[in-house]
Amino acid sequence: MIRTALKSLLGRKLRLLMSTFAIVLGVAFVAGTLVFSDTMNRSFTALFASVVGDVVVRPEAASAEDQEVSTETIPATLVRELAEVPGAARVDGNVSAIGVFVIDKDNKVVGGLGPPALGGNWTDAPAGHGLTGLEIADGRPPQGPGEVVLDDRTAERAGYALGEDVTIITSSGAEDALRLEPTLVGIADFPEGGSLNGATLSLFDTATAQELFLGGEDAFNDLWVTAEDGVSQEQLRERVAEVLPERFEALTGDEAADESATVLIDNLGFLTTFLLIFAGISLVVGAFLIVNTFSILVAQRSRELALLRALGASRRQVVWSVQLEAFVLGLLGSTVGLGLGVLLAFGLRFLFGQFGLDMSGQSLVFAPRTVIAAYAVGVLVTMVAAWLPARRTGRIAPVQALRDDVAMPESSLHRRLLLGMALLGLGAAALFAGLFVDVPRAGWFVGAGVLGILLGVASASPVISRPFLVAARVVYARVFGSVGNLAGQNSLRNPRRTTATASALMIGLALACTMAIVGDSAKASVDKSVEENFVGDYIVSNVFGGSFSPAIGDQVARVEGVDQVVRERFSVARRDGDQQGVAATGADDLDALRLEVTDGSADGLGEGTVLLQRSWAEDEGYAVGDTVELDTPGGEQAWEVAGVFEDNPVVFFPILTTPRTLLEAGYPDKDNALIVFAETGGAARGLQDRLDRIVEELPIVTVKDEAGFAEEQREPIDRLLLMIYALLGLALVIAVLGIVNTLALSIIERTREVGLLRAIGLSRGQLRRMVTMESVVISLLGAVLGVLLGLGFGAALMYAVRDEGLEVISVPVGQLSWFLGLSLVIGVLAAVLPARRAARLDVLRAIATE
Amino acid sequence: MTVTPTAAPAARVVHLTKTYGTGQALVRALDDVTLDLHARQFTAVMGPSGSGKSTLMHCCAALDTGDSGSVFIGDADLTTLKDKALTRLRRDEVGFVFQSFNLVPTLTAKENILLPLSIAGRKPDPEWYDTVIATVGLGDRLDHKPSELSGGQQQRVAVARALVSRPRIVFADEPTGNLDSRSGAEVLDLLRSAVDQHGQTVVMVTHDPVAASYTDRVVFLADGKVVDELTHPTREQVLETMARMSDPGAVGPVHR
Fold first, then answer.
1. Which residues, listed in sequence order, are joined to residue B148 by a DSSP beta bridge?
2. Is B115 in Cβ contact with A490 (below 8 Å)?
3. How confident is the model over B6-30, as pLDDT tens digits?
4. pLDDT for the residue numbered B214
5. Mutate which: A403, A474, A480, A760, vs B, most B CBs within 10 A
6. Which residue of A8, A316, A434, B73 has the fewest CB atoms within a 10 Å radius of its CB?
7. Residue B179 belongs to a domain
8. A752 interaction partners in chain B (CB closer than 8 Å)
9. Is B111's CB within 8 Å of A485's CB?
């Protein structure tokens, strides 16, 4: 029996290859994602192991979770005290800062979104466990204010060689220290492996770093205590902790590295989830293809299977012979998919490198888990998908071997409809619960709901698509005559097959449409809110959305034609353990922002008080006079609510306080946005040019007017959409292969009929046209269902989030019609090969085919 | 029966040779066959399995091509035509009835009958269409799908389809092979009356002496050669000739 199954597999290599492709793609996604995320984890773990000492001493409130450096520092005197601790070989103080940008020779900032631009002091302290930390690979350590050391990747990317002057822009410090031009005296790297993953690192000598980043204070951001031989990290940590003053804490290097790595990996974890969702989508689409292919193949072999039954094979043997084929196929697909997945991981690494997350220093990590997951997913999906058609083979009666025409037993359409409706109902309920009811893990509900609805529609579609297919036949017959009629009839001949094939396309397009609507609505909302709330004439902000020195605001304020500069600061605190954004602006600037304070008074805003956004205050149950409790780098804060203001998108976070309050709470003295008001009249002429000149000097900031600002706000949405479309494109490719496969198989099935048509005078061209029209019916059906479902999903999603600043529901009609047009093209393209194959059939042999 | 061969044959085969395989396995399916198929006549081609009768018909019907020699339908030399012209010729000049699977399962009987015309984008001549339909005698079953018709009815629909475009010549490949004798007789009557009443030329491949007895002329093939011929045959004559052919010693030149 096994041999029979394998033989029949070999006999159908090509047909199966195409359905394998779906498995290959799905598995490739899973494997690629796992390899990539393992690589990312290893890379960060290696990095963080190299950047901690045996024991790390730091201010208590400073945790790695919020990626800002605390303004709390450790006095240099503590270094000498800790050196006395028994078991401590040496103590080194580190100065570290974020927002120290290296500018390349084209006056562009090196790096990108995401990885930070780090600055600090050079020390030769060894990392934990005696590992060599950062090492000068070339040149020498920096000495004095005019010298700097860069990490090797940054120096390479910026194109600086030893001895050249490097342009560095800091986001802290005095106005005269904003733009530095020290000489590059050394290149540093991590000899133990690990890479900065795209972050840039500029190191000065300790005194210069303290001058630049700590305002000249003889202090450090953290200390490394190196253990003597034979003293463990934990022993040393305990001894250090005993002598530490209250405000400081000591961690072992392992703890500190784990903490940092975990935070970053958690932050990047959404990428893994994101990619795995797409792996899931392509597997679901692929499963449709497999069900369909196996159904057709089994139908074509029903006579052979009946013969096997007549010869004494048991029902179970017949079923398992089909399952065995599926198993082998899954195995093959998984193997190829695994290989492709590694390539995909290479591609992902390159892609993320383009966005700034440079991991070229880390070779790909190929964990056993990846292999197991790839095979488990590939084989399981194939076998489960093949199970439905396989089970049906068990119902073939042996007597059918003796009949001329064997019809595969089919489940009744009525049952399919009921099943579909049940799935649809469950899916809709889950979607509703996820969107509108407060359930835990709402995302899962939404996902399951969408899947349920898609599967429900797919299951019911042989029935619910009938009107479409009948209408298509009528239109075809009208427009294209008898060839059209034939094509229309063919797609009606086996509605299960037609609609299953269309379903694969439907899923991809439904998701693409949903994203198109969400994206378009988000952009429309951004436009609307910018239009309604943009105040002032220009906005100055950091190119990477980070912060910059207040000295830039001072410079801008002095530009001729500038009337007023409003500074805004954005910080992240923790409220009951969750991240909570806090905005700050001067109390005098509230009028300029056109902030409408309805409860309490704007005058009350000062040190230690906050204004709250109305919708948030209502949701969280705050009123004027209450206190808001937050965890900040400077410790716990209790701020009094001085007033409530009407929602205003210029204030990006629901809590608004003053810059002074943020400073007291341990946040650095840095601005995030400047709103520039021009003077009226002639003085404002040429203002843009004069502002641009500042930007030229300090390329870390940009100046935008209203249109530019709106565009900048839309840009991330576009970028995300593009990425999602690219990934959904893969689902479409699978769907196209599905159509090709179904058409090719059904032409093989209809060989005799094709021969007959040719014999009575159907020309090759007409035959090709017929196949193309069949293909177009399938693709159009998929597109229509997909667009309809996408509209539903999109509207539901947007309706659910209408309170969260996305109040505009916009349907990109142009884009949706583009999708429909695309599906037409897909239909035509998918038909090319099967049509050619049909046209090439030898008439005589076709007629003689049994 | 008042059939007189006209001067111009409907189809002519001239020195047609066709071989399959090479070397030891070489089979001469047709060996220098020259034959006129007369217009307005019902001709049967008979012969044992492998005698080349099907190949001969396929070549005449523009479904297959010979290695050398020519085939003419009317004035058209099939050997000089490309696929496109051959397709058009099949569509306009030739009608087909096969042993089985003659109809497109998705179309009704009526749509099947009209298929060659509608493929060609032509309207049926209403008078002729009515005549054909009346002759076929399908009555109210015209709107049924083939799966709802009996074998005999299906085959009559196939004959109607072959007749409706008024082809120069109708080829029938064992049209009664799958039918019981009564249904077979109906189909043969239909073909016979098409020749008698409408002057249609019909060529039929068969190995059934009864079927052959319906024809005006029987051409016997053996080993790719025309070995005998009968005009206005009876069942007994056909049987006798076939018996003579199956006796190896008797195969030889044709005795008139």
1. none
2. no
3. 557 889 999 999 988 777 778 888 9
4. 93
5. A760
6. A316
7. yes
8. 101
9. yes
Question: How many domains would you assign to chain B?
Answer: 1
* Residue among A19, A20, A7 at smallest CA distance from A304: A7
Q: Which of A482, A494, A497 to mutate to test the interface with B (most CBs of B within 10 A)?
A: A482
Report if residue B43 sits inside a domain.
yes
| Lookup result for tokens 């072992």 | A252
Q: Decide if A499 contacts A744 (C-beta within 8 A).
A: no
By C-alpha distance, the chain A residue nearest B55 is A844
Length of chain A: 850
Residues 735..764 of A with a Cβ closer than 8 Å to B: which? 752-753, 756-764
Q: Which residues of B touch A762 (CB under 8 A)?
A: 87, 91, 119
Question: Which residues lie closer than 8 Å to B25 by C-beta, 6 or more apart?
Answer: none
Query: Are the beta carbons of B155 and B102 closer than 8 angstroms?
Result: yes
Q: What pLDDT sits at residue A803?
A: 65
- Asked whether B151 and A404 are in contact (CB, 8 A), the reply is no
Beta-carbon contacts below 8 Å between A and B: 71
CATH of the domain at B168: 3.40.50.300
Tell whether A273 is within 8 A of chain B (Cβ).
Answer: no
| A614-639 b/e (C-beta count within 10 Å ≥ 16 → b) | beebeeeebebeeebebbbbbeebeb
Bridge partners of residue A248, in order along the sequence: A59
DSSP string for A359-380: -TTSPPP--HHHHHHHHHHHHH
- Min mean pLDDT across A66-75, A196-205, B183-192, B228-237 is at A66-75
Beta bridge partners of A585: A568
Q: How far is B150 from chain A (nearest CA, A)?
A: 15
**Nearest one of A645, A587, A637 to A612, comparing CA atoms:** A645
CA distances from A610 to A99, A577, A662 (A): 27, 20, 11
Mean pLDDT for B244-249 is 69
* Residue range B129-151: mean pLDDT, rounded: 85
Q: Judge residue B161's burial from the number of C-beta atoms within 10 Å of its C-beta, 0-12 exposed, 13-18 middle, 19 or more buried.
A: buried
* Distance from the B2 Cα atom to the nearest Cα atom in chain A, whole angstroms: 31
Range of the structural domain that residue B160 is part of: 11-249
Q: Do A489 and B83 touch (CB under 8 A)?
A: no
Residue B3 lies in a domain: no
Provide Rg for chain B, Cα atoms: 18
A486/B104 touch (CB, cutoff 8 Å), yes or no:
yes
Q: How far apart are CA B50 and CA B45, in angstroms?
A: 13
Query: Which residues partner with B33 through β-bridges?
Result: B16
Residue with the two structure tokens 């609505």: A521
Which ipTM did the prediction report?
Answer: 0.80
**Interface touch A761/B91, C-beta < 8 Å:** yes
Which of B83, B88, B115 minimises the CB distance to A482? B115
Structural domain boundaries in chain A: 55-263, 465-531+709-850, 538-704
Q: Is the pLDDT of residue B199 over 70?
A: yes
What are the residues of chain B with a beta carbon less than 8 Å away from any beta carbon of chain A? 58, 61, 63-64, 83-84, 87-88, 90-92, 96, 98, 101-107, 111, 114-116, 118-121, 161
Instruction: List A804's β-bridge partners, or say none.
Output: none
Please give the C-alpha separations between residue A850 and each of A401, A544, A753, in angstroms, as whole numbers.
14, 68, 11
Cα distances (Å, whole numbers) of residue A688 to A277, A278, A702: 45, 44, 11
Distance from CA of A504 to the nearest CA of B (A): 26
Q: Which residues of chain A have pLDDT under 70?
A: 1-16, 18-19, 61-70, 112-114, 173-176, 192-195, 355-357, 361, 399-411, 649, 682-684, 803-807, 849-850
Phi, psi of A187 (to 5 degrees): -120, 130
Q: Is residue B254 part of a domain?
A: no
Identity of the amino acid at A397: A
Extract the tokens encoding A184: 């590059």
